[in-house]
Design brief:
This protein is of the alpha+beta class. The chain has 6 helices and 6 strands.
């Protein structure tokens, strides 16, 4: 004969068991504002990934930074600002250090789409495919693929905005991440995220 063992009913938060027990809120794990912002960064990654891409081909790279990586990037931006005498890098670097999360969105190496549209500055995609230049970013890049990157960035920022998380697209984050060899993209931008009483990304000091 098999004996069946019945486990006691444990209600989820807010549910009432047959014996009248109601699970108190303190039994539930607490999600901090920073945890919530990090979760929003994952939703932004989904928005960027599903954003429209030319010819249905996806060359968009998406990376969500860990806290240690975020701090490394912020400090690297400040260092670049000191090296180049550009205050904007130091200002944006401090924003990154003060942020709750950062998501990187970049454009991976690619060939011309095949339209020969000239948007890249070359007469044909075949000529484009033979060229290479390295600065803060790797070039040249196909104009159509850059549109893909812009749409992905906009889709991610829109997701954060709809969820009331402060954000700002920053190309200077991409300069630092390229120097740190984070990711494989030719060109990368970053979106830092914060949730405070006033956005830290606007009305910033000019010097």
């Amino acid at each position: 004969m098999t004996t069946r063992v019945f486990k006691p009913f444990t209600p989820a938060q807010g549910l009432i068991a047959p014996n009248g027990y109601k699970r108190p809120a303190r039994d539930a794990p607490i999600m901090t504002i920073k945890d919530t912002v990090k979760f929003v960064s994952e939703l932004m990654a989904v928005a960027a990934r599903t954003a429209p891409k030319a010819a249905g081909q996806d060359f968009v790279e998406i990376i969500t930074l860990s806290d240690s990586e975020r701090i490394t990037v912020g400090n690297e931006m400040i260092q670049i600002g000191k090296e180049r005498g550009i205050h904007g890098f130091e200002r944006d670097g401090k924003n990154v250090l003060d942020s709750d999360a950062v998501i990187l969105i970049g454009l991976l190496p690619h060939k011309g789409v095949g339209l020969n549209c000239g948007a890249c500055g070359y007469a044909s995609c075949q000529e484009f495919n033979t060229k290479a230049f390295t600065g803060d970013f790797q070039g040249p890049n196909c104009g159509v693929r850059l549109l893909d990157l812009g749409i992905a960035l906009g889709s991610a920022a829109k997701m954060a905005s709809e969820l009331n998380v402060d954000n700002r697209i920053m190309y200077r984050i991409g300069v630092a991440t390229r120097r740190l060899k984070m990711g494989k993209s030719n060109i990368m931008h970053g979106i830092p995220l914060s949730a405070t009483g006033k956005s830290i990304f606007f009305d910033r000091p000019t010097k």
